[in-house]
Design a protein that fits this description.
6 strands; single chain; alpha/beta; globular
């Protein structure tokens, strides 16, 4: 085992395209940033998505410390995984950056109904939740509730939509700073 940290990248519903900050970070350092591959990005199955997170964490933990870098439905998947995973598995995770958590409890998207309800158990590792003031997938109040329930630090950078490629974040320097602070 090495001391090299692996950043496990967890995109949300429909994946993160090439202009998304997650994809940019992965492209800039593919040895450190490893994307979880899902079988179906457009029709997510919560059990399959959680299983993929577990597999990715186990593989990364064999190499060293793990940090989760999740966006949207990826955040909800992390919370669901952490609520059911054994402590021996979650112990490998040194922290999680949870960006723009999707409020699937109030989303009118049939493909996301299986992720209801959002797991609100405290996370067994340090985490930071980042949510914008005008995210169409989560209100600031719900994002704050998620952060408080998960025992996470809450950061509200302003009005940036869903904090994705449409937000014009580029490589998203603030996100890099928050990741480094974990």
């Amino acid at each position: 085992m090495s001391d090299r940290t692996t950043f496990v990248v967890l995109p949300g519903y429909q994946n993160s395209g090439p202009a998304h900050w997650q994809s940019r970070w992965e492209a800039a350092d593919p040895a450190a940033f490893v994307r979880v591959r899902q079988d179906d990005w457009d029709h997510p199955d919560p059990h399959a998505w959680v299983a993929r997170v577990d597999e990715a964490v186990a593989a990364a933990a064999a190499e060293g410390p793990v940090v989760l870098v999740a966006h949207s439905l990826g955040c909800v998947t992390v919370a669901r995984w952490a609520a059911g995973a054994p402590a021996s598995r979650t112990a490998a995770v040194r922290g999680a950056l949870l960006v723009a958590p999707a409020d699937v409890d109030h989303a009118d998207v049939p493909e996301l109904l299986g992720f209801r309800p959002v797991a609100l158990s405290p996370l067994p590792f340090p985490a930071t939740v980042v949510s914008s003031t005008d995210d169409p997938w989560v209100t600031p109040e719900r994002a704050r509730l998620f952060a408080a329930s998960w025992g996470a630090r809450y950061v509200e950078p302003g009005a940036f939509g869903h904090l994705n490629s449409d937000s014009g974040l580029g490589d998203w320097p603030l996100g890099r700073e928050l990741l480094a602070a974990l």
